[in-house]
Design a protein that fits this description.
single chain; about 290 residues; alpha/beta; D-Maltodextrin-Binding Protein, domain 2; 2 domains; 5-stranded mixed sheet; lyase; EC 4.1.99.29
Length: about 290
């Protein structure tokens, strides 16, 4: 009998895209079966803090808070390269130093970087789908848009600042991509199951990327994403691409830089190293020697 792995991911287009090859049966395992659930990213961050799922999509900035219980997976990752979340406001409005801002969750990467850059701002946390309306309706002075919301928003709004630009200032002279979303895997799983799980999830992203047009069409036809085909293609090119399959050394260095920024600014009690937090996939090769 196969061991069941409960995978949680967000309902945004890139996460749906990267997992769906498993759901459609394009990827399988001899020893594991998978079930999944979709929730907004902050709900997933909080679930990971409670240890609710075997594998869970998280904001990279949340990982140091769960590193004791979860390993960091190399696959199904989203990075920004010259783009990312956007701080928006009503057109023509000048923001005061202590402006009220809507953020998508306390443990999200955009919230960490924003709070470092704007320590006097007053954050209000809400589901990312309500942030644009909150700014338009005057509930907040500004908001940080994430996911598909960055592709198109009301003509009443304008970009005050790109989170990418904040990242570039904080990272220093190193040319590193912006770490946004990753995956974590419960450390209590047997090592062989952990390696198999990462392998299956990695294969799912690889196959999805290889068959992007077909899979995108299937997602649109089944109403599994919130955007049309044109926006879906644009969004996947940003956040679910060849760089999402397995983290490179430069991506891991970027994650470490994020952890360093968080630690220096008091967001974490200790400094975590991304390289030492990965599932030790080399064990499989040693075991079969």
């Amino acid at each position: 009998m196969k061991k069941e792995i409960f995978v949680a991911h967000s309902p945004d287009a890139d996460d749906i895209f990267m997992y769906q090859a498993i759901k459609f049966g394009w990827v399988d395992s001899k020893i594991l079966s998978f079930k999944n659930r979709a929730d907004d990213i902050q709900t997933l961050n909080e679930a990971a803090l409670k240890g609710e799922y075997d594998a869970c999509a998280i904001s990279f900035s949340a990982y140091p808070l769960i590193s004791y219980d979860y390993a960091l997976l190399r696959c199904a990752v989203s990075f920004g390269e010259g783009y990312g979340p956007k701080l928006i406001k009503k057109k023509g409005v000048n923001l005061k130093r202590n402006f009220k801002v809507a953020l998508s969750g306390k443990h999200t990467t955009n919230a960490l970087l924003f709070r470092v850059a704007y320590p006097d701002a007053k954050p209000v946390y809400m589901n990312f789908l309500g942030i644009e309306d909150a700014v338009i309706n005057g509930e907040v002075d500004a908001g940080v848009l994430i996911h598909e919301s960055i592709l198109e928003f009301s003509d009443e709004l304008e970009v005050e600042r790109e989170i990418w630009d904040i990242w570039c200032e904080l990272r220093g002279s190193e040319n590193l991509p912006l770490p946004l979303g990753g995956m974590a895997l419960r450390r209590s799983l047997p090592i062989t199951d952990a390696i198999e799980c990462e392998g299956v999830l990695t294969k799912a992203v690889e196959i999805a990327t290889k068959h992007k047009k077909l899979l995108s069409k299937m997602l649109i036809e089944r109403n599994l994403v919130r955007v049309d085909d044109e926006k879906l293609e644009k969004y996947l090119n940003l956040y679910a691409n060849d760089e999402s399959i397995s983290m490179s050394e430069i991506q891991l260095k970027a994650v470490n830089k994020l952890f360093e920024i968080g630690y220096k600014n008091g967001f974490y009690p200790s400094k975590v190293d991304a390289f030492n937090s990965l599932v030790p996939i080399e064990y499989e090769g040693l075991r079969n020697c």
